[in-house]
């Protein structure tokens, strides 16, 4: 995880770096630091905590220069202290490095360097990098060779931004398995872990590939490989705008992003769905159209919230597409020996397009020659580039660490994909018509946010929560529980309601409430029986029910209504009150919901 930025150009580097780091804080916020070339010397400043602490600490310092790098940390090796904060330097102070990733063989490298007389000041894996470069420079190499020799020695994952006091016109960048983009400006160029840090600066980005080194000055970007050969690159035009990356009038990104739900669903199906013609057009899948006709089995792979979207995808593909579908955590699947057969397609789902485990299973599927499809939000990200074909979410940048609007867009893509892949389209017209009505239905739920806020106030004192759902709403129960855990630090478990009697019911008491997701559907009678059982054991019950459903309301301590919809669409509605619920419990407890403790949005290490 961690976020890294770099700048070279006509402006003062510091404000550009600080703003970039603020945009990347969702990747980690244990400490922050910058290194800037000031009057021929590299000046470094680091602070423990969020970027705003670093900004404050720099208020009375002169850090005026046009070349610099910055870092916001999610601690892996070494506690979140000032000495472990990046940037890290060599013994002489000539080289300064920021790093995202893990250098797996750092212990042996550190031992080797210490024996050679290098002095280390941190417990991090990163610090071996500047010392190794220094080591190779001392052997008489030029900087390019010293860097390449260093990269040949380190094992693991890295995105590195480097400045060298003796190369004052160059910002160096390189990567292996961790994301890094170069932003191309006019008279200035940028570097960042992902494009959200570049919004408002440039819309032109270059995604560096593994093993490439970018040598960036204010007018020019050159990319070479480890053999010093020139590596061609493509400049990608970003669609995101500045407004999307700002909070506007909202107190938190999370709330803004929940309220963007209706527009996100619209943006995801816009231009892709024509219900009057019973038509779904997914341009990104056209190139593999013929191969898709041969698909007999689908494996969906993802992590976290994207995995829960995948679980809903399983129900969708089975019901609508009639294809056997299975879903796995990418982190588990990467170490399984699952036998594949011809006709298996793998769908990877990832908001960031950079999650390490998801990327690893994608590579595994590619090695087996399976057809790989992506459902990715971040345009140009590694997963988007590595899949054979895919569908972008069009949700816009998601900044809040807890995923909300991306989940809605993932579900929307899965519904469209399920219809696109189905051979029998006799019943899909009614589904497409309903999809067009979903944004207005989400708006009706958002209009009740005050009621949900009141419920959250009542619930802030509970230490535990059980979330129950069934069929399409079983993954919603899992995702609702995850949101509450992440944002309010309340222990919450999601369960399929049918499993309740197989264990979880033992926990039920007056102090152990249940959030039951019971829209009127094919399993609501079964759900209501489970609720009776909880009530009989004095467990408080809060219910998400369909408008006008008196029966569920009569059993519940409190009820939140959602509009009626077709069963496959229920998650698009029932998750919204649960996202708001988690948000309001978290803010009521005074937590920083955009940056929950211990979390980082983009998990680029294993
Ligand atoms: C939860 C959350 C995470 C991500 C997971 C996968 O709110 O945001 O669980 O869903 O880390 O991330 P992506 O979708 O970027 O691969």
Automatic annotation (TrEMBL):
The active site is at 2 (nucleophile), 601 (for fru-6p isomerization activity). Its EC number is 2.6.1.16. Homodimer. GO terms for molecular function: carbohydrate derivative binding; glutamine-fructose-6-phosphate transaminase (isomerizing) activity. It comes from Candidatus Zambryskibacteria bacterium CG_4_9_14_3_um_filter_42_15. This is Glutamine--fructose-6-phosphate aminotransferase [isomerizing]. The gene is glmS. Keywords: Aminotransferase, Cytoplasm, Glutamine amidotransferase, Repeat, Transferase. Its main location: cytoplasm.
């Amino acid at each position: 995880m961690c976020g890294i930025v770099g700048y070279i150009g006509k402006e003062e580097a510091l404000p550009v770096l600080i703003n970039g780091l603020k945009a990347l804080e969702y990747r980690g916020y244990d400490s922050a630091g910058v290194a800037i070339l000031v009057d021929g010397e590299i000046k470094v400043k680091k602070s423990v905590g969020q970027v705003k602490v670093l900004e404050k600490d720099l208020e009375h310092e002169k850090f005026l220069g046009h070349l610099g790098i910055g870092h916001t940390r999610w601690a892996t090796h070494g506690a979140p202290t000032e000495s472990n904060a990046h940037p890290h330097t060599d013994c002489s102070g000539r080289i300064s490095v920021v790093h995202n990733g893990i250098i797996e063989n750092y212990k042996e490298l550190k031992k080797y360097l210490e024996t050679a007389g290098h002095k280390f000041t941190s417990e991090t894996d990163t610090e071996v990098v500047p010392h190794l470069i220094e080591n190779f420079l001392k052997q008489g190499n030029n900087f390019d060779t010293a860097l390449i020799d260093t990269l040949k020695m380190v094992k693991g994952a890295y995105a590195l931004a480097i400045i060298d006091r003796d190369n004052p016109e160059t910002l160096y960048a390189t990567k292996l398995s961790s994301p890094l983009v170069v932003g191309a400006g006019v008279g200035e160029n940028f570097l960042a872990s992902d494009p959200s840090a570049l919004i408002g600066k440039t819309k032109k980005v270059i995604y560096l590939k593994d093993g490439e080194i970018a040598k960036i000055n204010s007018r020019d970007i050159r990319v070479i490989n480890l053999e010093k050969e020139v590596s061609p690159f493509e400049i990608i035009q970003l669609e995101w705008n500045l407004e999307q990356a700002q909070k506007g009038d909202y107190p938190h990104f999370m709330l803004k992003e929940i309220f963007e739900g209706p527009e996100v669903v619209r943006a995801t199906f816009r231009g892709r769905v024509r219900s009057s013609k019973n038509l779904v057009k997914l341009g990104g899948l056209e190139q593999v159209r013929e191969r898709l006709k041969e698909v007999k089995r689908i494996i969906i792979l993802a992590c976290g919230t994207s995995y829960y979207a995948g679980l809903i995808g399983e129900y969708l593909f089975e019901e609508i597409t009639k294809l056997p579908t299975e879903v796995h955590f990418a982190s588990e699947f990467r170490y399984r020996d699952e036998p594949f057969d011809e006709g298996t397609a793998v769908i990877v789902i990832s908001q960031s397009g950079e999650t390490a485990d998801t990327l690893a299973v994608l590579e595994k599927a590619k090695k087996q020659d399976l057809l790989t499809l992506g459902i990715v939000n971040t345009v140009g990200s590694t997963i988007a580039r590595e899949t054979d074909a895919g569908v972008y979410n069009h949700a816009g940048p998601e900044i809040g660490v807890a995923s909300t609007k991306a989940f809605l867009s993932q579900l929307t893509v899965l519904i469209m994909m399920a219809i696109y892949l189905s051979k029998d389209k006799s019943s899909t017209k009614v589904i497409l018509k309903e999809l067009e009505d979903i944004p207005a239905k989400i708006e009706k739920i958002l209009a009740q946010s005050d009621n949900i806020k009141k419920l959250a106030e009542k619930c802030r004192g509970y230490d535990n929560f059980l979330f129950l759902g069934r069929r399409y709403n079983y993954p919603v129960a899992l995702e609702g529980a995850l949101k509450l855990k992440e944002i309010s630090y309340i222990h919450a478990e999601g369960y399929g309601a049918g499993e309740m009697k197989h264990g979880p019911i033992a926990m039920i008491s007056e102090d152990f409430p249940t959030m039951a997701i019971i829209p009127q559907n094919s399993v609501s009678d079964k759900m209501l029986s489970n609720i009776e059982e909880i009530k009989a054991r004095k467990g408080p019950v809060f219910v998400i029910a369909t408008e006008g459903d008196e029966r569920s309301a009569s059993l519940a301590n409190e009820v939140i209504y959602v509009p009626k919809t077709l069963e496959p669409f229920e998650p698009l509605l029932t998750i919204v009150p649960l996202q708001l619920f988690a948000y309001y419990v978290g803010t009521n407890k005074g937590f920083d919901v955009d940056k929950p403790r211990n979390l980082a949005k983009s998990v680029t290490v294993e």
